[in-house]
Each structure stands twice: as C-alpha cells, then as structure tokens.
Amino acid sequence: MMDSQKLQTQYRTDTCGGLRKEDDGREVTLVGWVFRWRDHGGIVFIDMRDRYGVTQIVFDRNSAEQDIDSLAHKLRSEFVIQVKGQVRPRPEGTVNESLPTGEVEVSATHLEIISESENPPFRLDDKGEVGEDIRLQYRYLDLRREELQRYIRIRHDAVIAARKYMDTLSFLDIETPILCKPTPEGARDFLVPARMHPGKFYALPQSPQIYKQILMVSGFDRYYQIARCFRDEALRADRQLEFTQIDIEMSFIDEDDIIKVTEGLMETIYRQTLGIELKPPFVRMGYDECMELYGIDRPDLRYDLQIKDLSDAFRGCEFRVFNQILDTGGRIRGIVVPGAAGYSRKELDDINAVAVDMGSKGCVWQRVGGGGEHDSSIKNIVSQPYFDKAAELAGASRGDLLVFVGGPDSLTSKVLARLRQYLAAREGLIDKNKLSFLWVTDFPLFERDEATGALSSSHHPFTSPHPEDLDKLESEPEKVRSRAYDIVLNGYEIGGGSIRIHNPDVQRRIFRALGISDEQAEYKFGFLLKAFQYGAPPHGGIAMGMDRVAMLLCGTDSIRDVIPFPKSSKASGLMEDAPAMVEEKELLELHIRKIVKK
Ligand code: ASP
User: Fold this and answer.
1) Mean pLDDT, to the nearest integer, of 22-51?
2) Is the pTM of this model over 0.90?
C-alpha cells in the first residue's frame, strides 16, 4: 500500500499496519515489537506491532534461509525485531476481519532481534486490570497501547486542525514568556527563584493573559498560541498542574465575534478529527438563568432534569425547618425524576447520602401520587395539600419522584446540581453520543468569599464590567455583571474568556474593588496600566482547554489519558520521580535556605 511505503527507511519497506491483499507476493521488510506470540505445533506465529498497526508473521521452518525456527522460539513480548519475508493471503478460515491487515500474513525468511525486552509488568493489550500508578510508572510501555496511541493521534489531529483554522483567519501564532511576572488567574503560582536577582522570583504563567493583552496594544489584532499554563492547585480527573490552552485574543471585536471564531474552531476540530458535523450557533444562557435551572455554571445539557422552585408550595406548611428557611431568604428547590416513584427505600437513602455528601442536612423525597396520596419522607409532618401544590408547581405527575432541598441558594444549587448528575446517571438519561455545547454569559464580575467576606474576580481582574453596571462598582459590587463567557460541553467547562478592560482608570477601579491598593497595582501590573496609556484598542479573547477538549474527543473521562506524561493524582511524575530533592549547594546559589517542617 502506498501510505505504508511512504514510511520506508533503511530498516523497513512497509509498516505493520499497511499490508493488504494487493501486496500478495511482495518481498517486504518490517520492524516493530513482538505483540503476541504463539506456537502452533512447532510453527511460531507472532503479531508484530508498530504505531501503524499489527501484522501476523509466520516463521515457516521449511522456507527459511537461516535457522529461523530456533531464533523465533527465543522471541518474547516487546522484543524489537526486523523481519523479512513474503506477503501471502492467510489460509481460508483464518482471516481476521477486525484487523486492517487481517487478510494477509508475512511468511518470514529472515529474523533479526534488534533489542530484547524484560517481561513487561502488565499486558499491553489489556488495560482493565492494571492500576494507574503502575501504568504511569512504566508510561513508555503504557503509551505503546493501542488506546493511548489513538488518543495521542486524535490530539495531534485536533491541534493541526486548530492551527490551520486559526491561520486561515489571519491569527498569528506568537509565543509569550514562561518565566514571567505573576499572571493572576485565581490559582497559586509556581515560583522560580531568580539566581541573578537574589530574593526575587519569576512565576510560571497561569496563562499568557497579560502578555496577550499587551500584544493587542502592539497592534497584533489576532493572536493565538497553543500555550502551556501552570497552576499550583489540587489535581482532579480533569485538572493537571500544567495544562495546554488554545489561547486566543482579538482586537476591535465584541462577544459575538469571539463566540463565532470559537464555534468555528470547535466545528473544524470535530470535523477534522472525528468527521462529526456540529451545528453552531450553540445555545447561550445567562449565568443567573443557568444557576436557577441547573444549579451550576457548567451544566450537562444532554439531559433535562431542571430545578424547580417549590418555595410557594411549602410556605406556611407544618414543617418548622422549611418555614425557617423560607423566612430567612432561603428557598425549597427540587427536581422531578419522571416515573421514579417506585424507587426503594435503599435507593432513596442513597439519594439522601449524595445530598448529605454535598454539605446539606439531607433531602426530602415525595412519591407523587394522585390528589391527597403522596408518600414522602416528611408525610408525617406535612399535610397532603402541600404535596399536591408541590407536584403542581414542579409539573410532576403520578408515578414521578420529587426530590427537594431547602436552604440558601448557594447550598441548594450545589446539592441539586450534583443530584441532577447522579439521578441522570441512575436513570440512564445520559446519551454518550450526544454533544451538548452551551455558552454561559453575563457572569457576575466578582465572587464573595463566604468565610472572609473578601471579593475576588469570577474570571480574572482584566475582565470588563458590563457598561450598564459600572456605576455599581463601588456601591454594589456583587451586582456588577461581567462581559465574560464560558463554553461548556457535556458538563465540562472547555473554555472561557471575556471582553477586557482597555481603560486604565476602569482597570484601577477594579483593582481597588478587589482590595488591591494603587501602590500594589502599580507594583504588580504597572506595566499593563502603562501600556494602556499608549493607545489601547478594545479587545477580548478566550482560552480553550486543549486537554479537556482532547479528553472529550477521545471519549475518555481522565485528562491523564490524553497527556503523554501526566502527573499522578498526587501531583508526582511517577516514571521520572518528580519532584526531586536538590543539593544544598544548588539552593544556596539560588539564595534559598531549606526549612523542612518536622
Ligand atoms: N486567561 C484566561 C484563562 O486562562 C482565559 C481568557 O480570559 O482568555 O482562563
């Protein structure tokens, strides 16, 4: 096959994935790894593997020029070998339909063992039984597995598609520093001691945010970069200490322009990597509506299960706890699970445990019956007409299950968002083949820390406030909306950005609202404020989480699967054993003294 022969080198004529029926009779040379090995009545068969596929090799004693048989018996899994031989059709009945090369085999006349291998600690055709730590420790072997090879390939295709698309739209790929001044994105910085500046530190970029904004001031009105970002924060299945963004910034634009470019980017990526046609424009929803209906700013819209406000149903009911909640500004909110009234007590207890896990005292359930016949965990306290009203308000009918929680919105949202996920999974409502994109807009500019009362930016401090809300900046900062937007896919936030502030005075007001004094602002961000004094264009941008996008393209649920050398869930590089101790001498050169707490 042409493709396979394109990869010809001094070592091979073809790859292990390229041979087909049409190659019958060709003399070929292949290199690769011994994948599977079997001895059928003295004849050795192996499946030989490289990046491109698997080919069956038969060591036929009779036709061999060398003592191939005894050599073939020395082969073990993962040996690197070179095989010469003739392509021939597999005997009838032995064709392997599931393999692209399954109609042929190579009858070997020459075998060379190039490298031997230790017995691998796990089988490379079998993921299930191996713990992740051992896979990460022997990542070079893990990466040989077909699944990870496919993921890396999909990720490559996505990056290529992205680059081509950005280039078509005149975006320039511009690099920004890795050793920089802190770029706040709300996480802890990784600091790098500056040997040549005793006592000072560089920070690794949490994102190229400030630099890309400065590039706008420099007149590069369309910038992008596939940028590595670093945030020193707790790891999760979809988070790593270092990750990759498709980072974008544009000048002379508004929200719709960025959204359009991003939708086109996702469209291109899905078409080029998976051949899937997306249908932009994607749904848009304001933050308030999103929180009201789904309790979270990144809802999975592959299923419905909207949250309903049931406060009016229970106002004045016999349950003191509910009344207290309603009197102190809280609400009773719940979800209808269609046809789930038959859940057993055990299943209802499990649901309650999820609610408790999310920080509530528990949830209430109601098996919706006809008028006056509802079963409920509080039916001995609350009289039936209240349940009638609740069912009516929720739009629930006989046979449905209502699950509800009371409290401040911050609590009910959190609990119900989790219950939505739990119940959708339990009810089998999640269609794995569906892609549900959503834009969330009009975020609040600030968040208030419940414990300390301090304000912080919901996105980052360079996000523009909504012009209509500017006058509330000092008086009612929590009411100020921002010009930020997030893009969500199937419950994952895959990107986010905003229209930026380009006026130094507004930027100073934001810093002040965040409790950053003018002097601190000058020290930390003076260079940006100064740049804005030299003709700053209106600008905005977005960053797409490349790892998460790749994870979703690959249909896996761990970001580590699409990163060749990820950190473990405990933030270690298990293969290379990072982080590592360094010599005292090196630390001294960096003007650092080590204090290890006992
Ligand atoms: N710098 C932001 C982030 O990393 C994205 C943006 O606002 O463009 O989340």
Assistant:
1) 94
2) yes
